[in-house]
Amino acid sequence: MPRNRRIGYTTGKNRRPNGDPLRIALDRLRRDFPGKSRSWVKRALFRLPHVREVREGLYVVEGVRELGDWKPLYQVWWSAREGRWECTCYYSTFGWRRRRGICTHVASVLLYRRFKRAVEAVENRPVYFASAEVECVDVKVRGALEHRVVPLEQSDTILDCGKRRRFAVYVVSAEPEVEILCDNAPVKLQGVKVSYKVAKALLQDAQRGDAP
Ligand SMILES: [Zn+2]
Ligand SMILES: [Zn+2]
């Protein structure tokens, strides 16, 4: 297959600025609770998809049979009076036993809160968004966090594959200045400072063909 027929939707390596939010959240949970076992952290991670935030300080955690839960839902909340996180499982038969430690429903909420903060930190991180229209056979983008290359004209036949075409190039970068290669000739682009969240929205628009 000729190379440029694959162009049209290319993404940079899925490198996230500031690293992976889930890894950051897990590191922070381990750091904040150094005495807790690996299985405690593992269970918190396993429960993470089953945590729902009702509001700040109040969460619903779905019961998971494989983890020994016998109720469909557990409520986890911050008790200002007690100065600790509480779970409905502490108030059931033998709950006092769990209450002395930190149950893994609460652990999953603690992980969820750290994960949410890490995601927000990544989304609000300043990055640079640059766009350009170029005419060439082949476009390369290097060192970007993410990018899209959208051909503005169709290549009609397979024989057109070596022909110059117009491309719209969109780049999200950690640096204000980005270099793209048009048939190996460097072209410098100047980015506009935006949040990573906004940059991703701009890239998505670009994919739909709304050229800025
Ligand atoms: Zn679920
Ligand atoms: Zn619990």
Automatic annotation (TrEMBL):
Top-level taxon of origin: Archaea
UniProt xrefs under InterPro entries: Znf_SWIM
PROSITE patterns, per the entry: ZF_SWIM (PS50966)
MF term (GO), any: zinc ion binding
Residue span, SWIM-type domain: 74-114
Keywords on record: Metal-binding, Zinc, Zinc-finger
Protein name: Zinc finger, SWIM domain protein
Species of origin: Pyrobaculum calidifontis (strain DSM 21063 / JCM 11548 / VA1)
